[in-house]
Amino acid sequence: MEMRLNYIKVQPEAFQTLLKLEGYVKKSGLDHKLWELIKIRASQINGCAYCLDMHTKDARATGETEQRLYMLSAWREAPFYTEAERAAIALTEAVTKISDAGVPQELYEQVRKHFDEGQFVDLIMAINAINCWNRIAISTGMVPGEYQPAARK
């Protein structure tokens, strides 16, 4: 597998624009472990090896357990996730596969039991950001394996 092009060098302003969205989500107060689960689940659905490599490493760096990472693709059958995490993961799946059924009202209500309006918007922004990153990584042929998480403070 070989990288097709370095989109950051070709269009740095586009890269910076997406980083602003990422920065918004980072400042939103969304739980970092949940954010990583969102990134991993969307990346699983989209088949983005580069992002899976990156975000599983980042999740481990935040203290996420191997068991929860391994079971994420089968989260409905695994008892290792809170009800709030389950709602956010279900929302991640619905938004990532939005053409299948949209975001049903029942799912919206389930998510809202655990997240207020502002947090709902933050979840949507986080889900959309990772879907955008997945599509960029896949389209440009980013190669997994070299990414290392930044040192934790």
UniProtKB/TrEMBL annotation:
Q: Name one Pfam family in it.
A: CMD
Q: Which InterPro entries match?
A: AhpD-like (IPR029032), AhpD_core (IPR004675), CMD-like (IPR003779)
Segments forming domain Carboxymuconolactone decarboxylase-like: 12-93
Q: What is this protein called?
A: Carboxymuconolactone decarboxylase family protein
Q: Which organism is it from?
A: Paenibacillus solisilvae
